[in-house]
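Summary for the funding panel

The consortium committed to producing paired sequence-structure records for every protein in the target list. Below we show the first two records in order, beginning with the earlier of the two.
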Amino acid sequence: MSMGTELLGFLLCVGGWLLTAVSLANNYWRVTSFAGSVITSTRQYQNLWQACAEASTGIRNCRRFESLLALEGYVQTSRALMIIALLLGLASILLSVLGLKCTKMGSMTEQAKGKLTFTAGLLFILSGVCVLTAVTWYAARIVQEFNDPFYIGTKFELGAGLYLGWAAAALVILGGGMLCGSFRRASTPRNKRSSVIRILKLEHFKNMVITSRFTL
């Protein structure tokens, strides 16, 4: 495998995984929109865990979402996908550490390490897809409510937490693709060499047969 490609992909994936955790903990998944409003002294914002209101004086009051079953479906799904993404990312990091070419684990062969790295890359990509699905679905719901003229609730805009999630998904998917790609590029030359060796052996065998016929 290409060690440089592996390390770069691994670092991108770890950075994306950390950014996923930051996005999940960020308070600003949705923030109050002041479009068409004359009251700007209070700002409201929410994430997957709580809703907060902050006055212009700096006083902030937050209320945690107490019941999971009382939440809307897209919030429940976004929570689950973000947590699954973090768990998949953690498992992928462990597999990557075991499979990187620069690490030594007993008598593990290069082929076995390559398969571990390839599996870790696939899991990283799946983790990135989970994050991308969660933040995109959440953002789509905000945009839908904002553009609905019959929506009577508080209208919100996209918050920083969503942008962090999109950045995290991009890093993880890119890094996972690099890990998978490094394994394919490393395996292709070996396959070509083995094919050439088989062809040479076959040609040598044919020459031996022809020579034996002339001798007889």
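The next record, for a separate protein in the list, is shown here:
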Amino acid sequence: MTDTDTWRLSASETVARTTSGDLTAEAAVDAALTRMDAVNPNLNAVVVSCADDARARALDLDKARASGAPTGPLHGVPVTIKINVDQTGYASSNGVPALKDLIAPDDAPLVRHLQDAGAVVIGRTNTPEFSFRADTDNPLHGRTHNPWGKHVSPGGSSGGAGSSIMAGIGALAHGNDIGGSLRFPAAANGAVTVKPGLGRVPAWNPSQTAERGMLAQSMSVQGLICRTADDLHLAMPTMIRPDARDPFHVPLPWRGDALDGPIKVGFTKETYEFDLHPEVSRALDMARDALTDAGYQVVEVEPPHLRDCGMDGYRTLMGEVLSLMGPDIEKFGSPTIRAIFDEYFEQFAPYKDTDILRMMAKRTFYARAWSEFLQDYPLVLCPFLPQPFFAPDRDTQGAAGVREVLGSALWSYSMNFMGLPAACVPTHVAELPQGPQPMSVQIVARRWREDLAVDASAAIEARLGRMCDLLWQRMG
């Protein structure tokens, strides 16, 4: 196979070839690195190259296979890791210049598990400062661009992951999500992802000097951004393997029990006080029709307490951020990120004192209401954002910018507050006045049933196609 063919392979296709002997791990990694050299200078998605380590590891994998050693489920798959997660010998800078020399003494659980499964880390992807924007730019590594064009943000905070995976740099891209940081980049770039639920993927950075706040622990999750839903089914069983360093990890298998009869999908276009764009409405209709054709029973619903849950969740998180992260943001953050946080605190007035404790308790009320709701509707098809994805730096443009970027993202951060899994899958490319961009929908699932959300994403993809194929035609 030529490099042109090889870098286009999905993770599933790569594993099929590396385990059969049709493709070496060295060839798979070399193709990904060649692609990175070709497109990354215009994207700035991968900001730290791991090329030398990757080539050495690929050779070791090939030697082990030649000697008769068993291959892992991700044998030879090129992957990227976000720069806010520990990888031995590399800085976990989180986009902050003051942390540029914070070298990881050991691998985070997900990095260890991916490599134990045979994956090869080829680079580390960009994030905004403190990984707390839905756009990706920082004073340490600069701006990441969307491969669809500079008219649209690559999303954040896993913007480097979303940009790189869709441009063909590697077959799997690690990211994380505390309020939408897997789904924003997936939606912006036309990728597919699933935000795992609470406790699903073990998390811990050995470079940490203190534990994160309790709400951050409850809302933040680790995951993958992919070009195809099948790759989530391939790789997520590796991601959810247990690790003793996360004492609250939930050791459940990836696949849950089969459900009786056609799966009922709650369907809603509700965007509350925000206008629903015709292209978002069209995306929801296309996804609904795809699921119906695939045998799902789609029913219009009114989900419980969504707006209140979203606002209470974000105001509670902002209260914790103000108390625990505020001093570091003020001391180490750039003027840009400080101004953005000032606007966050203005629009999402942080809960304080006993109010924050009451809202952390009320989180159970919202989660219970949704747990009961999801007994009747195991999946919910809903908007992710009410409007097409925003332009770069929109969140630096005062109250209106922050309202468009995060204020309208009720369907995003409410799922983090309740700890529910939520997938994001593209439907079509909208030809908008500002330029072309992919449109996506969100699929919420019952607790610990990420597999159901990925199944539904695969059904939509089977009907509507992969966005990467359209993107690569445009990229040439």
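Regarding this second record: The radius of gyration is 21 Å. The mean pLDDT is 97.
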